């Protein structure tokens, strides 16, 4: 007996039912969402560290100022006076490497006494020649300051105290700045119920070094036997830092 040319109706019905059931099972499977992890929170804190130390050096900035009618005469007078200052400083044990010329200039002096709208006349000239002296033994500072003025300097512009190992002190201040920032960040993190994670970035936002102490000694009269009383005190070197941490 020959097989039928076409499948029976019952076989077709079974195939359709099986295909429909498979499609229903696929559509009923739960969908899995691709959720990106939430970005970690951060905290940013500033810190400051400072170290105070006694200075062990000083720099005197002094000048000789002379005036007169002729530039040649004024310059000659000024040059002789500043040479005398330098000679006296060297004779007191200061090496040449610690003496440096600063702020040389020749300036016209004008006569403004005439009531006129025209350019005032030049009445003479002023010559200023400065010198910086580094003193590595602070016990000599008062005596050298007196010596500088007595030998011809008529303007003491500043005294600057320095620390010979300033770079090392600054590094200590930087470490303290980081500790300060971490301490404050830890307090805020604990209060918020989170922990500090890794440092995301860190930036030094500034450093502070000792500044010159300004003083004037124009026309200052000193007794030859009296040294200028100078107290070095302490110098403060500081650093500031900004740090950002991730939170966990």
Brief digest:
This is 26 kDa periplasmic immunogenic protein. Keywords: Signal. Helix content is 31%, strand content 35%.
Descriptors:
single chain; 248 residues; alpha+beta; Translation Initiation Factor IF3; Alpha-Beta Plaits; 2 domains; 5-stranded antiparallel beta sheet; 3-stranded antiparallel beta sheet; 35% strand
Strand content: 35-45%
The helix fraction, in percent, is 25-40%
CATH class term of the largest domain: Alpha Beta
Q: Using the 3D structure, state the CATH architecture of the largest domain.
A: 2-Layer Sandwich
Label the structural class.
alpha+beta
Unreliable residue stretches: 23-33, 217-225
Q: Please state the average pLDDT score.
A: 83
Summarize the biggest pleated sheet.
Answer: 5 strands, antiparallel
Task: Note the run of SSEs as H and E.
Answer: HEEHEEHEHEEE
Question: What is the end-to-end distance?
Answer: 80 Å
Q: The CATH topology of the largest domain, please?
A: Alpha-Beta Plaits
Widest beta sheet: strand line-up:
3-4-2-5-7
Write the layout of secondary structure elements.
Blueprint: H1 9-28, E1 42-53, E2 57-68, H2 71-91, E3 99-111, E4 121-135, H3 141-150, E5 155-162, H4 166-192, E6 196-208, E7 213-214, E8 235-247
Antiparallel strand pairs: 1-8, 2-4, 2-5, 3-4, 5-7, 6-8
Model description:
- The structure is a single chain.
- The chain is of the alpha+beta class.
- It has two domains: 40-56 and 165-219 and 234-248, Protein of unknown function (DUF541), domain 1 (Translation Initiation Factor IF3), CATH 3.30.110.170; 57-112 and 121-162, Protein of unknown function (DUF541), domain 2 (Alpha-Beta Plaits, 2-Layer Sandwich).
- Helices cover 31% and strands 35% of the residues.
- It contains four helices and eight strands, in the order αββαββαβαβββ.
- The protein has helices spanning 9-28, 71-91, 141-150, 166-192, and strands spanning 42-53, 57-68, 99-111, 121-135, 155-162, 196-208, 213-214, 235-247.
- The strands form two sheets. A five-stranded antiparallel β-sheet has the order 3-4-2-5-7. A three-stranded antiparallel β-sheet has the order 1-8-6.
- α2 packs antiparallel against α3.
- The model is unreliable at 23-33 and 217-225 (pLDDT under 50).
- Residues 1-33 form the signal peptide.
- Keywords: Signal.
- InterPro entries: 26kDa_periplasmic_antigen, SIMPL/DUF541.
